[in-house]
Specification:
about 675 residues, alpha+beta, Glutaredoxin, Glycosyltransferase, 4 domains, five-stranded mixed beta sheet, four-stranded mixed beta sheet, Ssp411-like_TRX, 6-hairpin_glycosidase_sf, Thioredoxin-like_sf
């Protein structure tokens, strides 16, 4: 018989709906049951693409003898961390305070009110069974000690919210980005690209900052490090060489062995990152990665409605990575004429060797070097690889596919909307803008309530769960990006409505920073509210909001927005400087203050055409505004002249005399 999770929409929760564990979804029903039975809560958190989550489900949660103990001694709650990042953040903070580390599956024990007192990650079945008995015994016989432990953990979690104002607040000067970059560069891996050590995560926010810093400083070392990283990832096993798209991370220092799940948020941010690098460098191989990654997204992660699914699992047929790896014989069967050559190209039985005679496809040599060694032209090699990839992809699609997490998350969709818009900006490939607009309209129609508040997740026509700060911040940023490529002012007004909602419902009276969840009942865990400021694999919602406020402040001449953003960034100044790897998105915001926001306002009949000619030169600190007819948007005030197309160039509040030709734009203002 199914348990209560059968009524959920999350694929991860539905995977547990037939466990013998009497799972509850996270909510008041579970808390009421814990109070009524006077039993501790067992809160188990994971996500559908998590390999070790699947392992623990199979080894422990599917076993009747273990489930019987769980059901008898605990009220068991299953949480999809992607649906409820607010819940995950609370209990992850608790486990990290206990052990100085965390991960998934996350298994946390809590008092009936939800206050955590102990937790860990993956446990083997025998460990898990012993732990259940120990925790239950402590709850029954050392209850007061557990309450003290829970109280201390809650104090520790609350203490993490305290980001003290600097004793002597100062503006962000031009030296600050230099200091931040120098501190960050100490962690660069000069051999393999990325940051030092293993496992290796792509960390797009870090390399976005590095490229932004290059734009500001012209320091070629910064560009070289970023390009080295992007090339190394694209040539490694972390990148799907025949299907496009990136896996979540590599387990080694060489980008070779991926953790094979593919996440929407990674691929969205990486498309934006490669687009920025292509804009700066013009290197065509970066454009190919953008094209292949978007093709992967269209093929595997796009819903009929034009929105984007969450993830593909790492596992198929009970094995991690089984769908993606190849033997030499399999390659030769599909490519009898060119198999030997392409096996060498992809490192088969050499650099790509993995487990059980199988290989992870990667590129040990650059295409230029490989083509030269094989006496091929660059175009001949490109055509050969394209043909072989199509045949291998067709053959691979006959295999048992990894599971698809087909829920739609507003924050991750927003990242992909921005990615498509960013890709359009550097190519002007219209179908990519069309896809971004379609997904944005879906978000407006399906996931924004009439009062302007957001719902976080959508599936089968049903939107649910209150939006968190990241949802609002990422969607507002996506709408601003859409405006900058379409010049439809509706997107700016939509971003402003989201921002005003954040100011009303996420604001903290004692800080310029925002809470992770809104202040109305049911919007987050009741036991504590959390302020989150660090970048993980996704950028900090607070950091993104600082950019949104800066940009909207200029478009709408709203000084309260820009003042709030400056106070947020100043509050974070010490943390950015001390540990820029964890605050890279903040570092990019700080750089906007250091360099100043540049605005290019274009008015008149040819405004849109003029604006598009400037796309390829636009840096992160440049805001474009264009209108062919008079507009009420404050940035256009007193800037129209009948029959003329004019370009107004401003740095902060200082503007030059308008010019009438894009070639006359001061390159320093781009």
């Amino acid at each position: 018989m199914p348990n209560r999770l059968i009524n959920e929409t999350s694929p991860y929760l539905l995977q547990h709906a037939h466990n013998p564990v009497d799972w509850y979804p996270y909510g008041e029903e579970a808390f009421a049951a814990a109070r009524e039975r006077n039993r501790p809560l067992l809160i188990s958190i994971g996500y559908s693409a998590c390999h070790w989550c699947h392992v623990m489900e199979h080894e422990s949660f599917s076993k009747p003898e273990i489930a019987e103990v769980m059901n008898r001694l605990f009220v068991c709650v299953k949480v999809d961390r992607e649906e409820r990042p607010d819940v995950d953040l609370l209990y992850m903070n608790a486990v990290q305070l206990l052990h100085n580390s965390g991960g998934w599956p996350l298994n946390c024990f809590a008092l009936p009110d939800g206050s955590p007192f102990w937790g860990g990650t993956y446990f083997r079945p025998a460990q898990w069974a012993d732990l259940l008995m120990q925790i239950s015994d402590l709850y029954d016989n050392s209850h007061e000690e557990l309450k003290i432990q829970a109280s201390r953990l809650m104090e520790g979690i609350s203490g993490q919210n305290m980001v003290e104002a600097p004793a002597n607040p100062s503006g962000i000067d031009r030296a600050f980005p230099d200091e931040t970059y120098e501190q960050l560069s100490l962690r660069f891996d000069g051999i393999n690209g990325g940051m030092t050590g293993a496992p290796k995560f792509p960390m797009p926010v870090v390399w976005q900052f590095v490229l932004d810093y290059y734009d500001l400083s012209g320091k070629t070392e910064a560009l070289d490090y970023a390009l080295k990283t992007l090339r190394a990832m694209a040539m490694g096993g972390i990148y799907d060489q025949i299907g496009g798209g990136f896996a979540r991370y590599s387990t080694d220092a060489h980008w070779k062995v991926p953790h094979f799940e593919k996440m929407l948020y990674d691929n969205a941010q990486l498309i934006s990152l490669y687009a920025k690098a292509f804009r700066i460098s013009g290197h065509k191989e970066l454009l190919e990665i953008i094209q292949q990654s978007i093709s992967f997204t269209e093929r595997e992660l796009t819903s009929p409605e034009g929105a984007f699914y969450a993830a593909l699992d790492a596992d198929s047929e009970g094995e991690e990575g089984r769908f993606y790896v190849w033997t030499r014989d399999e390659i030769m069967n599909v490519l009898p004429e060119y198999g030997a050559l392409l096996s060498e190209y992809w490192g088969i039985d050499q650099e790509g060797r993995w487990e059980h005679g199988r290989n992870i496809l990667l590129r040990p040599l650059t295409d230029e070097v490989f083509a030269t060694r094989q006496h091929l032209s660059a175009e001949e090699l490109k055509q050969l690889v394209r043909m072989a990839s199509a045949l291998l992809l067709k053959e691979r699609n006959k295999r048992v596919r990894p599971g698809l997490d087909d829920k739609i998350l507003i924050s991750w969709n927003s990242l992909m909307i921005k990615a498509y818009a960013d890709a359009y900006r550097v190519t002007q490939h219209q179908p990519w803008l069309d896809a971004a607009l379609k997904a944005a309209r879906f978000s407006e129609k399906e996931m924004i309530r009439e009062d302007g508040s957001l719902l976080r997740t959508w599936k089968n026509g049903n939107a649910r769960i209150e939006g968190i700060l990241n949802d609002y911040a990422y969607l507002a940023e996506a709408f601003i990006t859409l405006y900058q490529v379409s010049f439809d002012e509706g997107w700016l007004h939509a971003a402003k409505r989201l921002t005003d909602n954040v100011l009303r419902t996420f604001g903290d009276a004692n800080s310029p920073l925002f809470w992770f969840s809104a202040d109305h009942p049911g919007a987050g865990p009741e036991v504590v509210r959390v302020i989150e400021t660090t970048d993980g694999v996704e950028p900090s919602g607070n950091a993104v909001m600082s950019k949104v406020l800066l940009f909207l402040g200029h478009y709408f001449s709203e000084n309260t927005y820009t003042d709030r953003a400056e106070k947020m960034i100043q509050r974070m100044q010490a943390r950015i400087n001390a540990y820029p790897q964890a605050y890279a998105c903040w570092a990019s915001s700080a750089m906007l203050l250091a360099s100043g926001i540049r605005t290019l306002v274009i008015t008149g009949p040819e405004a849109f055409d003029f604006a598009r000619t400037l796309f390829a030169k636009q840096t992160a600190s440049t805001l474009l505004a264009a209108s062919i007819s008079p507009s009420d948007l404050p940035i256009f005030e007193n800037r129209f002249k009948d029959g003329e197309t004019l370009i107004y160039q401003c740095l902060g509040s200082v503007c030059q005399a308008p010019v009438s030709n894009p070639d006359q734009v001061d390159h320093h203002l781009l």
